[in-house]
């Protein structure tokens, strides 16, 4: 009886190079240089938004005196994370970023789950920033005698961003550049004036204080380390978007890594200095905490008026509005590119993977991104209400939606670090480096996982009072990722050719 050879499944391709393929839509090549990538990513981190919106939360709900130290710790952790991330970006040029890297290291199923989760997280961020924008815009309009309400302002921001991001990404980069430069200049002036004239608290720079919260005292509620550290890390979310612009940047193998290091270290120094300067504007740490808890909108404005002048406060009051808008725009661009990348691979509706015939922008994915943000804002307006901007727009839409998204992003960044180690050991053993592809990613995995753990330990703190639904963030985020993993298994069984492409459309012609 003749023997037959065993039938083996075809080998799964590691990558699908799309550089020479006409049947795959591609983004505009060389649309931005190093400066453009920096503006797109730094504006995602939004220095003035991070400081004026996040610092009061870190001071009033987290570390108090240790707020600058929390930013120092976050700088160190994210710099270590960047080491492995940059090494991976030099291997794979893709618009998929996180999920493409996880796909290569930990498998397509986990990669798609992470990608689906990241897509939802970045979509949530645009809506979150719309809450911050609406909060300060509503205050500004009220001071001029106009009562518009926060919901129309938030919805209007998303609509305008949707129109602007329909075009070539270089158009977005130019708009964001103007906003970024002006907000950095005014904050540097604020720092110089406050540190020269105010009260210097040197213990605020002690990294040990990043892991110490303050107790309740009188009318002051106690702080929680996990909350403070979490919002410090939230201040950087956006810097990791640099690889998503790899296909649209000039010399991506070099410029993406440079953009990441400049973003992490530059923002770290800036955040530490500015948060320290804000504390210097108060005669005691207790008074700073009291201001952060009772009147977060004026946490920066009160000391800037006293020490830098009313005109500085006036300029900042406008720039926080434009900065929040620019930050939302940056997150919109990244969300659209995740949706575009997943659509191009066939894991989401293929129409999302189309590019505009003239602008070569992911225009359909961009429209879908706007609809997601509009839906989130609309649901908040319906179920939370519109009569209390401080609680609804700032505390919940901005603050709590940021937490929901950052849980996913930090968890996914931890997975990326683990994936980098596995990828190099499995596919490039001759290029394994003890620091870049081993120790640094392992340290990043442990440290970012620990920050997420600290937040979950303090979810009861976030869920106090009327914000009890904060306890659902963990299960909801897990459900989102598991839905992505489930979809991946579905495609693996019923559409294996589509499944093979998950995270593997790489543009090697750059």
TrEMBL record:
Cellular compartments annotated: Cell membrane
Highest taxon, organism lineage: Bacteria
Alphabetized InterPro entries for the sequence: AA/rel_permease1, APC_superfamily
Transmembrane intervals: 31-53, 65-88, 109-137, 149-169, 176-196, 216-239, 259-279, 308-331, 364-385, 397-425, 437-456, 468-491
Gene Ontology molecular functions: transmembrane transporter activity
GO cellular component: plasma membrane
Keywords in alphabetical order: Cell membrane, Membrane, Transmembrane, Transmembrane helix
Entries under Pfam families matching the protein: AA_permease_2
UniProt membrane topology term: Multi-pass membrane protein
Protein name (Swiss-Prot/TrEMBL): APC family permease
Species the sequence originates in: Trebonia kvetii
């Amino acid at each position: 009886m003749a023997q037959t050879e065993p039938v083996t499944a075809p080998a799964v391709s590691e990558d699908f190079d799309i550089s020479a393929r006409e049947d795959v839509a591609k983004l505009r090549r060389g649309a931005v240089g190093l400066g453009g990538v920096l503006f797109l990513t730094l504006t995602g981190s939004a220095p003035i938004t991070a400081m004026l919106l996040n610092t009061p939360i870190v001071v009033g709900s987290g570390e108090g005196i240790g707020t600058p130290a929390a930013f120092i710790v976050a700088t160190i952790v994210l710099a270590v994370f960047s080491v492995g991330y940059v090494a991976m970006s030099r291997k794979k040029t893709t618009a998929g970023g996180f999920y493409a890297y996880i796909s290569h290291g930990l498998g397509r199923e986990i990669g798609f789950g992470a990608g689906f989760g990241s897509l939802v997280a970045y979509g949530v961020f645009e809506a979150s920033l719309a809450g911050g924008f609406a909060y300060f815009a509503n205050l500004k309009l009220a001071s001029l005698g106009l009562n518009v309400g926060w919901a129309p302002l938030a919805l209007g921001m998303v609509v305008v961003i949707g129109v602007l991001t329909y075009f070539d990404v270089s158009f977005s980069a130019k708009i964001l550049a103007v906003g970024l430069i002006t907000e950095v200049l005014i904050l540097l002036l604020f720092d110089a004036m406050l540190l020269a004239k105010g009260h210097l608290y040197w213990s605020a720079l002690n990294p040990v204080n990043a892991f110490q919260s303050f107790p309740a005292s009188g009318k002051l509620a106690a702080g929680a380390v996990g909350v403070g550290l979490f919002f410090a890390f939230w201040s950087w979310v956006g810097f990791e978007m640099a690889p998503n612009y790899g296909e649209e940047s000039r010399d991506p193998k070099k410029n993406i890594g440079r953009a990441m290091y400049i973003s992490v270290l530059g923002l770290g120094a800036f955040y530490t200095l500015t948060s320290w300067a804000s504390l210097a504007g108060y005669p005691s740490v207790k008074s700073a905490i009291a201001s952060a808890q009772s009147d977060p909108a004026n946490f920066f404005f009160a000391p800037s008026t006293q020490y830098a002048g009313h005109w500085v406060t006036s300029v900042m009051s406008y720039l926080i509005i434009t900065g929040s808008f620019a930050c939302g725009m940056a997150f919109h661009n990244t969300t659209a590119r995740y949706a575009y990348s997943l659509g191009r691979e066939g894991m989401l509706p293929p129409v999302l993977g189309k590019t505009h015939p003239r602008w070569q922008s992911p225009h359909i994915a961009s429209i879908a991104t706007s609809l997601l943000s509009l839906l989130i804002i609309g649901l908040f307006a319906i179920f939370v209400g519109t009569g209390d901007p401080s609680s609804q727009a700032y505390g919940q839409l901005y603050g709590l939606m940021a937490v929901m998204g950052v849980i996913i992003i930090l968890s996914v960044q931890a997975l990326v670090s683990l994936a980098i180690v596995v990828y190099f050991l499995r596919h490039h053993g001759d290029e394994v480096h003890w620091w870049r592809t081993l120790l640094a990613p392992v340290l990043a995995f442990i440290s970012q996982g620990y920050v997420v753990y600290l937040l979950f330990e303090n979810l009861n703190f976030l869920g106090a009072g009327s914000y009890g639904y904060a306890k659902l963030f963990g299960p909801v985020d897990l459900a989102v990722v598991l839905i992505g993993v489930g979809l991946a298994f579905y495609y693996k069984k019923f559409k294996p050719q589509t499944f093979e492409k998950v995270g593997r459309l790489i543009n090697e012609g750059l």
